[in-house]
Amino acid sequence: MIVRIRNKIFLLFFITIIPNLSAQNAVIKSIEIQGNKFFDRNQYLNWIGININQRTFPGIADTIKNRISKNLVLNGFHLFKITKVETDTLDSNSVKIFIDLKEDKPTEISSIQFIDEDSFDIDFLRSSFNFLIGQVLTQQEFEKSVENILNYFEENGYPFIKVIINSVSLKNDSSNEKTLADIKLSVQKGNLSRIDKVEIRGNNFTNENVIIRELRLSKGETYSQKRIDEFPKRINRLRFFEPVQTPQYYINSKGEGVLVIEVKEKQTNNFDGIIGYIPGTKENEKGYLTGLINISLRNLFGTGRAAALRWNKFG
Q1: DSSP string of 231-268?
Q2: Hey, how many other C-beta atoms are within 10 angstroms of the C-beta on 84?
Q3: Which residues of 184-198 are buried (b: 16+ CB within 10 A; e: fewer)?
Q4: Is the distance from CB of 164 to CB of 7 less than 8 angstroms?
Q5: pTM recorded for the entire structure
Q6: Which residue of 47, 163, 215, 277 has the fewest CB atoms within a 10 Å radius of its CB?
Q7: What is residue 297's predicted lDDT score, i.e. its pLDDT?
Q8: In the chain, what percentage of residues exceed pLDDT 70?
Q9: Could you give the CA distance from residue 8 to residue 150 in angstroms, rounded to a whole number?
């Protein structure tokens, strides 16, 4: 499987530098949050992950600040300010944490522009993102659209597809009391990829043609991630190998697309039986063999053919 490096949204924001809490290892008796409008106190406490009666620790102010910042950005708030994270000493061993912030307004997507895209793809790309215009810019929803694009092109011969976020520009629309985001993206498909060769590794006994035949793959077939994900199931049905993982894919020095399948063979032949010898009971009477033998060969000479032999004689 192609390991895809996805480009996450990194929005820059400024946070006031706050000194460390003065009281270390004191018991937290209360947490006060001021300035929140869109999210209630319980939501902030859940984000912070610090509980009443928990003790303070070095760097707790930065921890609180970073956790709040992360979750506000994930929920589409990018111009917030955290003005204070302080402690008030209640007694020699307990403190109150005070947090003052301004959430500002959620950021709405104003426009999404694609840079230097092929005319063949532009309609599909726009349709994948246009529904987001006017919605709050959240990482989860934006990445769903990116995921849809990646999946579409992977299924149609472009396993090395990249979606690059070139810029995210934030602006304050004071007339409508909104924060707006203009996003510029570029999509790098790479060249159309095909499966020109199949490399089988680890098949010390089984003929590679047995495995390739099971794939039902045509030479030069266009790359499809869905098809490749199905290959382990097909190979595992042979029952000749330990569970097979998803194949790897690369382009060799000749520009050929190579699919690499690694297998680990297991014992496929079984022998089960018991043999005894019964001597003759009379003079000049010959003895004879008795017993049961079952031999099962499920991968005869590595060809994938099966054979079975059964012998029994009693009395």
Answers
A1: HHHHHHTT-SBSPPPPPEEEE-TTS-EEEEEE--B---
A2: 14
A3: ebebebeeebbbbeb
A4: yes
A5: 0.68
A6: 277
A7: 57
A8: 80
A9: 14
Determine the Cα–Cα distance for residues 214 and 231; give it in Å rounded to an integer. Answer: 8
- The predicted-structure confidence for 146-165, as pLDDT tens digits, reads as follows 999 999 999 999 999 999 99
User: Which CATH number is associated with domain 27-102?
Assistant: 3.10.20.310
Residues above pLDDT 90, as percent of the chain? 56
Identical fold for domains 27-102 and 107-188, yes or no, is: yes
Class of domain 107-188: alpha beta
Beta-carbon contacts of 18 under 8 Å, excluding residues fewer than 6 positions away, are 61, 62, 65, 82, 84, 85, 86
What local confidence, expressed as pLDDT, does residue 303 receive? Answer: 63
Q: How far apart are CA 222 and CA 48, in angstroms?
A: 48
Give the residue with greater pLDDT, 1 vs 57: 57
Q: What is the architecture of the domain spanning 194-262?
A: Roll (3.10)
pLDDT of residue 166: 94
pLDDT in tens, 176-235: 778 999 999 999 999 999 999 999 998 888 888 888 998 999 999 999 999 999 999 999
